[in-house]
Each structure stands twice: as C-alpha cells, then as structure tokens.
C-alpha cells in the first residue's frame, strides 16, 4: 500500500510538491474519471492540490469517446435547456459557462468550432482530441489517475475523509464525487456513486432514463426500420399534449429514435401517444396537403396507389402512412375515394404511435434524477451537509437537452468543484 499512501498523504512521494497560493498542499481525491472528474482534477491540480483520481474502468474517459457520435459536442452557445435541475444548472453556467469553458479549452490547447443550433465541437471533429488534451493536462500536472479501482465506501475521518476502495483505504482532506448516473453502465456510469452520497445524508431523486429511444406498437411502422424523416413529434396523454419537439425522427424495429423522439422520452410512459406531423417539414398545412392529393388523384390517375406520396416522403414512409390511413395498396390512384384522400391527409398531419415503453439505462444518453441539487453550492459544488465533500456532473439531479448541454454542465460543475473558489490560471490568458 506504500504507493497509495504516498499518492494521497504526500509523505515524500513528491520531492517538490506543487503549492497553492497559500503555500499549502491540499490532498484531494476525485471519484470517477469521466468529463466532470477529469475537469475537476485539472482545475484542482492547477491550483496546487495534490490530486488522485479513481476510476473503476480500465481507462478514463470511455463515455466521452461516445458523445456526439464520436465528435464530442462539448457545449452550446444558446440559452441553457435543462428539464431537470434547471436552477443549479443555470447557476453553475453563470459562473462557468461558454466564456469560461472556452478559456479552459484554449488553455489546454483545444480549439473549438461552432456549428448549427449553437453546438460547439473540437475543430478536429473527434472526441479523441478532447480526451487527449484532458489526459495530457493531467499528466503535466502530475494527477495520479488510478484505473481499475472501485470505491466501496466514504467516511469522515477527523476533519478529512477516508475513501475505502477495492485496493485499500486512502485519506484526503477533500473528496469530489463525479461517478456519473446510470446511463450506459458499460461506459462507467452504473449508479454506484449514489450510495456514497446518500450515506452522508444527501437525498436521491429516483433515477430514470432520459434522452433514450421510445418503444411503440409496431404494426404501423412495419418495414420502416432505418428510415429518417423531418417532422414534429408531439407526446400526448389523454388528449393533452405534454411535449413537442421538431427535428429528425428515426424509425426502428421497436419504435422511434432520433433527437426529437429522444427528447420526449423523459416525459413518456406506456399508454401515451407519439404523434408525428410531417406538414411543417413539407412547408404545407393539412389543407394544402389535401389539395395536393386531390391534384394527384386527377393527374396521376393511372399510377399505383403506393406512389401517391412520392416526392413528399420516402417510398417506405409513404406506404406506412397509407397503411395507417387504412388505404389498400392495390389498384390505381384513380380508385381512391374522397374519404381515403382525407384520411391520408390526416395521417400526414397526425401519424400516431402508441408508446409501450422506453429503452433502458443501457441505451440512454443521460440520466434524469440523481442526487438532490438543493444541498450543494453552485459556487464550488460543495456539499452543505458535509464539509470537504463536493459532487459534480451527472451524479447530480441535472439533465439537459441534446446539443452539448449535458457535457457543458459536467465540465462546468467539475471545474468549479476543482477550483473550490480559487482563481483559474486560464483566466490570465489573453
């Protein structure tokens, strides 16, 4: 255990330990090697802390590599959108938002590019570039990153902390919990950090999948798997509209995916209805769609019925809409009745899919729920219940929309936890 003791207690392991402005070396342990944990480690070590980062997987940053389809959507320059934990998220980003995080990335050597809808990516377009600059910064600042280590307990010891792990107990004056929620446990977030915080008096808001695929009845989408379409997706319950999203929907064997569907998932439950409206994407109304179908019924009389919606939607989606309108595919367009044309027009404006469930934590991008935000300071992410304890990232009850909001909160809260009220060295950059 000599190595572990040395790494945390500073008993000669460093011949010339880094000091903060007061000339005192703070021993800090960070639990979790994801985005928030790495940002916290860099910020804390940059201020002079002696930092050990513990990660239960075989390497840090696995989940980061999967974000933004491997491109890593780091943040968003638009207005914050956080359906869960909005108050804390806004407070954190008011302290460490676009300007501060941009300075942080430039200090690490990462250059950024803004794309549509305020989404910010590394100029390389690769998540690997983001992970590289984080890892290299930790190496330069002598952060001890220990992988394959599971934290089993967290206890108060004097004025500091005892961190119990699978390789023995470690001591620190400050602990930052950044172990994530329950989304995609194979990439490191299995919910095990919740109990570390609940055991110290913090309340857990029941976690549930957010930003995940929605399972629906499949009769109307048979044969549509892999088809994409721009549309408006409305989540309805008992005739009441709960949520509306616009964007691209992706049909699957089991239901619906794509950003606009996934952003409805946090509010969806079995028995709800997803209504897909294609008219806005077509720049038409239900009435102008009907007029167009009437025109086709006169001018395309001899064409097969399955071609009625050619040029409006893909051939397979067109077939699905006709099926949903209870229109037979046999025969020609000339044989369609007025009632059938009206039903097709209605289905283009309202293609209903009944929700049967959600894909679980294995598939979701982020967790809704988590540790109650009420007992943490947005200035430093410090616990108001336990001095010297901080938490950041997805372990908190904060979840944002797609578009970089979740990573933005993870990095922002991690940086604030690491700084612990001290001035960031990247603030001195011109």
Fill in the keyword field for this structure.
elongated; 6-stranded antiparallel β-barrel; about 30% helix; about 25% strand; 19 strands; alpha+beta; about 425 residues; 13 helices
List the helices and strands and how they pair.
Elements: H1 2-9, E1 27-31, H2 35-46, E2 50-55, H3 62-65, E3 75-76, H4 86-95, H5 98-108, E4 112-114, E5 119-122, H6 127-140, E6 144-147, E7 151-157, E8 160-165, E9 168-172, E10 174-177, H7 194-198, E11 204-210, E12 214-216, E13 228-237, E14 240-251, E15 255-257, H8 259-262, E16 273-277, H9 279-282, H10 286-299, H11 315-324, H12 338-349, E17 351-358, E18 366-371, E19 389-391, H13 405-419
Parallel strand pairs: 1-2, 1-10, 2-6, 10-19
Antiparallel strand pairs: 3-5, 4-5, 7-8, 8-9, 11-18, 12-15, 12-17, 13-14, 13-16, 14-15, 16-17
Helix pairs in contact: 2-6, 2-13, 4-13, 10-12
Q: How big is the Rg?
A: 26 Å
As laid out across the biggest beta sheet, the strand order is 12-15-14-13-16-17
Identify low-pLDDT runs: 1-22
Shape: elongated
Estimate the mean pLDDT confidence: 92
The percent range for strand residues is 15-25%
Structural class: alpha+beta
Provide an overview of this structure.
- This protein has 430 residues and is α+β, with helices and mostly antiparallel strands.
- 29% of the residues lie in helices and 24% in strands.
- It has helices at residues 2-9, 35-46, 62-65, 86-95, 98-108, 127-140, 194-198, 259-262, 279-282, 286-299, 315-324, 338-349, 405-419; strands spanning 27-31, 50-55, 75-76, 112-114, 119-122, 144-147, 151-157, 160-165, 168-172, 174-177, 204-210, 214-216, 228-237, 240-251, 255-257, 273-277, 351-358, 366-371, 389-391.
- The strands form five sheets. Strands 12-15-14-13-16-17 form a six-stranded antiparallel β-barrel. Strands 6-2-1-10-19 form a five-stranded parallel sheet.
- A hairpin with a 4-residue loop joins strand 4 and strand 5.
- Helix 2 (35-46) packs parallel to helix 13 (405-419), helix 4 crosses helix 13 (405-419) and helix 10 crosses helix 12 (338-349).
- The longest helix is centred in the last third of the chain and has 15 residues, at 405-419.
- Mean pLDDT is 92; it is low at 1-22.
